[in-house]
Write a structure and sequence with these properties.
Elements (H helix, E strand, L loop, with lengths): L1 H18 L2 H7 L10 H13 L4 H4 L9 E5 L5 H9 L4 E6 L2 H13 L5 E4 L14 E7 L8 H11 E12 L4 H14 L8 H9 L12 H9 L3 E9 L2 H5 L4 H5 L6 H8 L1 E3 L5 E3 L2 E2 L3 E8 L2
Parallel strand pairs: 1-2, 1-4, 2-3, 4-5
Antiparallel strand pairs: 5-10, 6-10, 7-8, 8-9
Helix pairs in contact: 1-2, 3-5, 8-9, 8-13
Length: 300
């Protein structure tokens, strides 16, 4: 009975938090915020977490940034903050988030490594980043921009603070993924009958970072490149990383293709899959995973 009560209370907290906006929601629903007893435990977790998304760390590297000023925008409880501090010799590391609780966790974790960073709390309404204009070499934002209520304000700030020769590395959710076309469209909406009566993208939102997550978009690569171009950034789609959740449901594609209820768009995606030498699924030559990764530079 106590566990049922705790589960119900936890869900109520998430519902209430989601109604207050992203900062409140991510304070209650921090991603992978274990407490670590040593630097070794912390760095082991860093590597374990990256293995949950094969190919991610190669597309969004934290190494090789020597001498740079790096901003981790939406740092959460500090996984990539730790990665940058351990695997790059930076001039300065800045960690920013809308959740004060997440920032405190990140600061606590970084202290275990004997490293330092500047921690900034971002107001989710104004999205002002309190750093000087043209002062940042690399803006790293992993799994964050698809949750922003006012993306235009964030991107204007990115352009303001980035050095003329600086770089923006971004991971956002990928529309052309097994997550959307199989895990959401068939496993949830048809096989389980969950979220069957809501639009596909709303069902996607509910399956990613908690049912009550207030905002969770996904983009086709050309769509996100266009968004960034509208704010003065030129860039490339580097590729995607697939989650182990997607890999675990991969064999269900045959059952999904036999289901006449599955819309043609998803059937075309599933029949169009190919595989690389590692057995990783590809669609139109790109990894068919949820984590789409990009690199941008400021148009001068």
């Amino acid at each position: 009975m106590a566990s049922v009560f705790r589960a119900g209370f936890g869900r109520l907290r998430r519902v209430m938090a989601s109604r207050k906006g992203s900062a409140a929601y991510w304070t209650v629903n921090m991603v992978a915020h274990d407490t670590f007893r040593s630097a070794e435990e912390s760095i082991e977790h860093f590597h374990w977490r990256n293995t949950q998304y094969p190919g991610y760390i190669e597309l969004m590297p934290v190494s090789g940034q020597e001498g740079k000023v790096v901003l981790d925008y939406g740092c959460g409880p500090g996984n990539d903050v730790v990665g940058f501090s351990v695997y790059s010799s930076l001039q300065k590391l800045i960690a920013a988030d809308v959740s004060k609780t997440a920032l405190a966790k990140a600061q606590e974790r970084l202290a275990i490594h004997g490293k330092e960073a500047e921690f900034l709390h971002i107001d989710e309404v104004s999205n002002t980043i309190p750093v000087p204009s043209e002062s940042v070499d690399l803006i790293h934002s992993s799994g964050v921009l698809h949750h922003c209520a006012n993306l235009s304000a964030v991107l204007k700030e990115f352009r303001r603070i980035l050095k003329p020769d600086g770089q923006v590395s971004v991971m956002v959710y990928n529309y052309q993924s097994l997550w959307l076309h199989l895990y959401v469209a068939w496993v949830h909406q048809l096989k389980k009958g969950i979220y069957r009566d809501v639009p596909l993208k709303d069902a996607f939102r509910r399956t990613t970072d908690g049912e009550q997550c207030p905002i969770s978009h996904c983009y086709r690569p050309d769509e996100f490149l266009s968004v960034m171009q509208n704010f003065g950034f030129d860039g490339v789609f580097k590729g995607a990383a697939v989650s182990l959740t997607e890999m675990k449901c991969l064999d269900l594609r045959y059952e999904a293709l036999q289901d006449q209820r599955l819309p043609a768009e998803h059937r075309a995606f599933l029949t169009g899959l190919t595989f690389d030498h590692r057995g990783i699924p590809l669609y139109q030559g790109a990894v068919a995973g949820i984590d789409a990764c990009y690199s941008f530079r400021k148009r001068l």
